[in-house]
Amino acid sequence: MSEPAASPTTEAPTEATTEAATGLSDGLADALAALAAPDGAAVLVGLDFDGTLAPLVDDPTASAMTPAARAAVTRLAALPAAAGARLALVSGRDLADLAARAAPPAGTYLVGSHGAETGHVRAAEDAGGAHRTDDGTDDGTDDGTDDGAGSTRVDAVPVRLEPEQAAALERLVAGLERVAAGTEGAWVQTKPSAAVLHTRRSPRDAARDAVARADAVVAELGLHALHGKDVVEVAVLPTDKGSALARLRDVVAQDAGAPAVRVLYAGDDTTDEHAFEALRPGDVTVKVGAGDTVAAHRVADADGVAAALEHLADLLGRRLAEGA
Ligand SMILES: [Mg+2]
């Protein structure tokens, strides 16, 4: 075998950055310009939370957006409706947890539990008003949050499990609890329609063994496991971020009254690949951090996401000023 010349790795997408002003790759800057083209299309900005806007931390209750990510998200949400931008957080966290951790600005669509739960953040003063959620209902299960930047409430569409799904969830939790009990540092999180084995604090060999045993539990129950970073997540409702994003595109088309909706989606984990795969020509896919991906673009971290969002906000503001 001949010695390969010092060649770039096959994994890193174009980093040939002449856009010193934005810090974005030329390819991403061009894609964002096309996304914000003045043709009346709405722009749905879908963002994963952990590892995308908030750096990954050992304690999931301590996750928080970086200041730059918070500023960019707040700015996008504050654009006038006529700018055509809609913001969505799309997470594996359950909806209440996502809302509490992210404290998203009013107007943000929320997708929790990989699509099993949906909601919409509104300003608290709208509490009595008619307000559309993803299925057009207001079930009154509001989770009030107040991040200090204005009080908001979440209209949440609750998860409804069939009796056999509820029974499967019970057996699943019991099985994963048995795995966790025999694994140093492992623990089980339960969600309305799923259970998650966490191994981030486990020694590597123990984590690998626990994942194998969790997979056996899942196979025995006839369920399907999603393998993420130090997590095995098992839902009793079939959902993924791709189908959730496709549904959200339709909701936004209706809410915004737009002839078309183009989507920007950014995420860091394997579960985000479903979202990338569900997107279409004209949409923009951004992988955050290292690892194989089908996304067309890549940024290094949450602050890279923030730079892309700031650039998009500039473009959308310009489009608004030009009256498109
Ligand atoms: Mg993530």
Can you walk through the features of this model?
By secondary structure, this protein is α/β, with parallel strands linked by helices. The chain folds into 2 domains: 26-159 and 240-321, 3-Layer(aba) Sandwich (Rossmann fold); 163-235, 2-Layer Sandwich (Alpha-Beta Plaits). The protein has 8 helices and 13 strands. The protein has helices at residues 26-35, 67-78, 95-102, 163-181, 204-220, 241-256, 272-278, 302-321; strands at residues 42-47, 85-90, 109-112, 117-123, 145-146, 151-157, 187-191, 194-198, 225-228, 231-235, 261-267, 284-288, 297-299. A hairpin with a 4-residue loop joins β5 and β6 (151-157). The longest helix has 20 residues, at 302-321. The protein is globular, with a radius of gyration of 20 Å. Residues 1-20 and 128-148 have low confidence and may be disordered. Bound molecules: magnesium ion. Magnesium ion (MG) binds next to loops.
Shape: globular
pLDDT under 50 segments (min length 5)?
Answer: 1-20, 128-148
The overall strand count is 13
- Give the end-to-end Cα distance, rounded to a whole number of Å: 57 Å
CATH H-level name of the largest domain... which superfamily? Answer: HAD superfamily/HAD-like
User: Could you say how many structural domains there are in total?
Assistant: 2
Q: What is the alpha-carbon Rg in Å?
A: 20 Å
Q: Per CATH, which architecture of the largest domain?
A: 3-Layer(aba) Sandwich
Strand content: 15-25%
Series of secondary-structure elements, N-terminal to C-terminal: HEHEHEEEEHEEHEEHEHEEH
> Largest beta sheet: what is the strand line-up?
5-6-4-3-2-1-11-12-13
CATH topological fold name of the largest domain: Rossmann fold
Number of helices, where a helix is a run of at least 4 consecutive DSSP H or I residues: 8
On the 0 to 100 scale, the average pLDDT is 87
Q: Helical amount among residues, as a percent range?
A: 25-40%
Query: What summary fits the major beta sheet?
Result: 9 strands, mixed
